[in-house]
Structure formats: C-alpha cells, structure tokens
Amino acid sequence: MTPAxxxxxxxxxxxxxxxxxxxxxxxxxxxxxxxxxVQPLFRGDKVEQGAKLMAALNTLVLSLGRMEQMLPMARxxxxxxxxxxxxxxxxxxxxQALLWTLRKGLGDAATPEVMSGWAEAYGELSGAMKAxxxxxxxxSATAAAHAKVHRxxxxxxxxxx
Length: 161
Ligand code: HEM
Fold this sequence. Notes:
Helices cover 73% and strands 0% of the residues. It has 161 residues and is mainly α. The protein has a single domain (3-152), classed as Globin-like, CATH 1.10.490. It binds protoporphyrin IX containing FE. Protoporphyrin IX containing FE (HEM) binds next to α3, α4, α5 and α6.
C-alpha cells in the first residue's frame, strides 16, 4: 500500500473508533443479512465478539505497511477460524459487510479513495489468512481474463498455400 493510502485508512479509522460498538453491531447485522448461513458459527457473546473484532482491526490499522509483522498473528487467527467452521468464501462476505459498515459509519468521509484503501488493507490481511489456513487462493478473475486473451490469439492450424 502506498503511504498516502495507509494514512487515509488510519485517519478514517480514527473516526470509527469513538463509535466502535455501534459499528460492530452494524457489521454483524449486515453480515447475517447477506450471509445468514454463517450466523450459527458465531456462538460466543456478541458484544465481546464485537470488541475482539474491533481490537483485531485496530491491530491491522497499526500494522499497515508492515504486513510481515502481522503474519504470525494472522496465521494463528486463521487456523483457529478453520476450527470454527469458517471457509475461504466467507472472507469475501465478511469483507463486503466490513466495507459496507465503514461506508455507513464514515458517511461523507467514505470517498472512493478511502474505500479503495480499506479494500486493499482487508484484501492483504484476508489473503494472508486464507493462504495460511487453506493454502493457495483459487484462480482469480485476472487469471480468467488472461486465458480469454490467449484464446483469441490462438494460431490457426491446417493452413494451406
Ligand atoms: C480479516 C478477517 C478476520 C479477522 C481480523 C477476524 C477476527 C476475529 C477475532 C479477533 C476473533 C476472536 C478470536 C478469539 O476469540 O480468540 C474472531 C472470531 C471468530 N470469527 Fe473472525 N475474523 C476474520 C474473518 C472471519 C470470517 C471470514 C469469518 C466467517 C464467517 C469469521 C468468523 C468468526 C467466528 C465464527 C469466530 C468465533 C466466534 C465464537 O467464538 O463464537 N471471521 N475473528
């Protein structure tokens, strides 16, 4: 991440901190709305859970730009998530709920640049967690786009003069 983006994420996180309890509640509400199938995985106390989530995000924000320092914690956390029944596809849904919550919580401060910064930060962390817990990520959309370009430039065979 560029230093400017890191700064944007840090500055906007400071706006979320004073409303972190509401933000956590909003996040779970949104997550269970878009992914009701994950609700049974959460068995602990919701308020406590929200506080842990916010603490984890705080660590993420503080470590931005120094991802390698976060890796041991991210790996350990990701492996614990497997035991709770979390699957790779859930990271996408959690990311969507998180970005939605931030957009709501930040209001006018949620500019496209700010939201891209958050998406990048979550992408880095969740990518590291998924890689640690499940091995390599599935083929990306970029790989699919590549394949398409290659197909259209395939040489014709059986040409006659
Ligand atoms: C960057 C992504 C994520 C972060 C930073 C994160 C963070 C955390 C933290 C800090 C805890 C508490 C750990 C503890 O109690 O020791 C937790 C628990 C949990 N997380 Fe995540 N999480 C992430 C992604 C996900 C995803 C994708 C799911 C899938 C639905 C998920 C589901 C859960 C569940 C089910 C628990 C345990 C709940 C319980 O004890 O009842 N998390 N997470």
